[in-house]
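Changelog-adjacent note: as of this version, every example in the card shows the full chain rather than a window. The one below runs 144 residues end to end.
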Amino acid sequence: MLHNVPVLPTTFKNRFILGYPDRRIRTAMSQPAYPLFFELICHGSLPDKKGETFAVPYVEEAGSRIKPLNAEQLYEIIVTHPAYILGQPVRLIMCYAGYGPNSLAQQLADLLGAHVLAADNLVCAYTLTPLNNGRWIMFKPRLQ
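Full-length structure tokens:
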């Protein structure tokens, strides 16, 4: 467990939950997975004043959120997970992870050197479709 965040399995061998599942996460867990991707489900933050977003896992016992995770922390969690294969594309099932030019998803793609699929707005837990005219965006690693 890195950064005090448990990474829990789901019924899909390629999908994991960051933190403990609340009602919305439980709903999203059962939606079909994209088999080629390493998928992570958790809540995402609204963009801050700099336009940055973060992964925001829940801690069920305390009923509160774990400190938001930035791209570097998410990278560490992913690359140390035994189910992740280096270079494998990642799907972030979390709200706002793909929002803005320097989104959490873009930063993660750069760190992983792999494609990252993320939504740029809210994600409906029942259908995993972006809301409010949002869309799924594939982020490619930028040359460094």
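Structural remarks: The two ends are 30 Å apart (CA to CA).
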